[in-house]
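Q: What would this complex look like in 3D?
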Amino acid sequence: MILTRLFPHPLLTLLLTACWMMLQNSWSPGAILFGLILGILVPFLTQRYWPDRPRLHHPLKIAEYILVVLYDIVMANWTVAKIVATMPNDKLQPAWISIPLDLRSPEAITVLAGSITLTPGTLTAELSSDAHALLVHCLHAPDPDAVRDEIKSRYERRLMEIFA
Amino acid sequence: MNMAFDIAVSILLVIGGLLGLIGSFGLVKLPDLMTRLHAPTKTTTLGVGSVLIASMLWFAVREGEVSFHELLISIFLFVTAPLTANFIAKAHLHREGHKEDLPEVGDGTVWAGQLAPEDEEIDEPHFLPEKGVGDAL
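A: Here is my prediction, written as structure tokens for the whole assembly.
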């Protein structure tokens, strides 16, 4: 109990320390020590705003998810660059699509919305009032249903497993 | 070997520059705000990304020290870029409405920005702190 009070978010502690080390770009004991102090102080002082600990499963799945998103960013970048550079504006078919969500945890929805925006060609604009759907804008989507199905099967399915 | 390395770094830099150019071009060329949002927020992620990879490669091989600053820059960029785009889109929806263009949510509710202030139910969202959580302070 006292341990969870003092270290409310062990993962955040690790992440902050790693961030500090990268910022310092050195592995000297002083840098590690100060990074640890920051990593322990910041979650402790901000725990009021993070009452829930997101439950993460399958570290391998997280790595897989990051790789999938990075791959999609690279691939879709070319598609979008091609559309922007060569397609006349009147051929463009922008579309709003609504993506019903099976995810419920706020952290998972945030990650999904961020991934959708980072993948070129799609952009998260809004959440429905009870957080059960995302409003996504597509730059060029002749077949909006296909985009919705792809997002659900490629990203949401994986996130369901990670944040299960 | 050195030659090949220089070529690799140069190609990455040129790709980064090209993507930045296309992104800025899209900002001028595309017809309205929502489509314009796509160009700079997207092409720049990979554009900046390849410049950063080039920088990492260069310093790793030429100076012999691995620099993690580039990694940090890309992490911060990837975390903040969606937020900016999201807020621009929300502000745009708020001002312009687009009511007739937007699809239905599908379960009878409306999009969060369409709630009229009077029928907004202020439920206690479950992720806000309960009283006493931070009492350790």
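A: To summarize the key features: Residues 59-86 of chain A form the longest helix (28 residues). The beta strands of chain A are 95-100, 122-127, 133-138.
Q: Very helpful, thank you.
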